[in-house]
Specification:
InterPro entries: SAM-dependent_MTases_sf. The protein is of the alpha/beta class. The chain has one domain: 3-Layer(aba) Sandwich (Rossmann fold). The chain contains seven helices and nine strands. The protein has a seven-stranded mixed sheet. It has a two-stranded antiparallel ribbon with strand order 6-7. Helix 4 links the parallel strand 2 and strand 3 (94-96). The mean pLDDT is 92.
Length: 211
């Protein structure tokens, strides 16, 4: 994919706040019951792919410390640089890449588990069906997918963390559920989490699917 102007906008936004965004993170994402269930799912015992891994903390950290086979990609060179600095022993497991391009080029049945937290919402929604189609293809049989998704549809540019520029794009959660079902995914469960971010409470719905 040629770098879309909106995707480029996301990259620029994360570049401005990469270190401070990392510094505000805690272990809470990796302590979510639905994440633990995804990680320990009996059909998720092979290679894991994280789309939008950022600095690798905390998701990649937990996966790699459990001695699982892992690979993480992120659009932002600054975020990947932070991951390389923080986890030098695992440097080769992090790569700068755009998620649709990466999945498009990946071999079928490559990953037993795929996870994406707070990243697909930055991908222009015209690419969402293609992304999910490739995710389905590159998952192993009965492999599991964990992702978050906003409740409502939204698209546009705005300011974000520390007033940095950001681009958001998503269909409604209802659209996504119907689309993933049509693509062949089986819905397993959802989990709603609420926490403080950037000075306000935010609710996030996490969805667990199986191929």
């Amino acid at each position: 994919m040629t770098m879309d102007k909106d995707i480029k906008y996301v990259e620029e936004g994360y570049a401005l706040v990469a270190k401070s965004y990392r510094d505000q993170k805690d272990m809470s994402q990796s302590e979510l019951p639905i994440f633990i269930e995804w990680l320990n799912h009996p059909k998720n015992q092979g290679r894991i792919l994280e789309l939008g891994c950022a600095s690798g903390y905390p998701i990649a950290k937990v996966i790699l410390e459990s001695q699982r086979e892992y690979f993480g990609i992120d659009l932002s060179p600054e975020q990947i640089s932070l991951a390389h600095h923080e986890f030098p022993q695992w440097k080769s497991f992090f790569q700068v890449a755009e998620m649709v391009d990466f999945c498009r080029k990946s071999t079928s049945n490559s990953y037993s588990g795929i996870i994406s937290m707070f990243s697909i919402r930055h991908l222009p929604r015209i690419y969402h069906v293609e992304l999910f189609t490739h995710i389905y293809r590159i998952l192993t049989n009965d492999g599991v997918l964990l992702l978050d998704f906003p409740l409502y549809s939204d698209e546009g540019r705005d300011t974000w963390f520390e007033d940095s520029p950001m681009y958001w794009s998503s269909f409604s959660q209802e659209w996504m559920r119907l689309t993933l079902k049509e693509l062949g995914f089986t819905f397993l469960k959802s989990y709603v989490d609420e926490k403080m971010f950037n000075g306000k409470k935010e609710k996030t719905t996490f969805l667990l699917y199986q191929k």
